[in-house]
Amino acid sequence: RTTIFAFARTSVRGATTALKALLRSLPDYQPIEGREPAFSVDGAFVGSAATSASGWAAFGWAVPLDEAVGAHTLRAEFAGDAWFDAAAGTGTFNVI
Questions:
Q1: pLDDT tens, per residue, the chain with 96 residues
Q2: In DSSP terms, which residues pair with 48 in a beta bridge?
Q3: Which of these, 21, 20, 27, 24, lies nearest to 3 by C-alpha position?
Q4: How far is Cα 69 from Cα 10, in angstroms, rounded to an integer?
Q5: Which helix (H) or strand (E) holds 88?
Q6: How far apart are CA 69 and CA 12, in angstroms?
Q7: Are 37 and 20 in contact (CB under 8 A)?
Q8: Is 4 exposed, middle or buried (0-12, 13-18, 19+ CB in 10 A)?
Q9: CA–CA distance, 53 with 4 (Å, rounded to integer)
Q10: How do beta strands 56-62 and 16-25 pair?
Q11: Cβ neighbours for 66, distance < 8 A, ≥ 6 positions apart
């Protein structure tokens, strides 16, 4: 079993912001290294990044200048593989 956490972020239009996720195995919560979760904002894919030895993935997303101010849904999704199940987690991405 697998779990992934997407962490809430706040940014402004035009800034590059690190979207972060943490990928862990269950039930022991051990980090999963070398996998590539995908990040999306409001359902639109924005990028992906490989997980580190500690299970963290961070993708630098340039917030579009026309992105609406307010709360958006941030999603981190791991598709799964032969060793680990698929997992998805959501957080809030705020544009101020």
A1: 999 999 999 999 999 999 999 999 999 999 999 999 999 999 999 999 999 999 999 999 999 999 999 999 999 999 999 999 999 999 999 999
A2: 38
A3: 24
A4: 11
A5: strand 87-95
A6: 8
A7: no
A8: buried
A9: 15
A10: antiparallel
A11: 13
Residue with tokens 């862990």: 24
Which residues have CB under 8 Å from 22's CB, separation 6+? Answer: 4, 5, 7, 31, 55, 56, 57
Here the tokens at position 7 are 């962490």
Cis amide leading into 31 (omega within 30): no
pTM above 0.70, yes or no: yes
Q: What is the DSSP string of 34-65?
A: S---EEEETTEEEEE----TTSEEEEEEE--T
* Residue 84 φ then ψ, to 5°: -130, 140
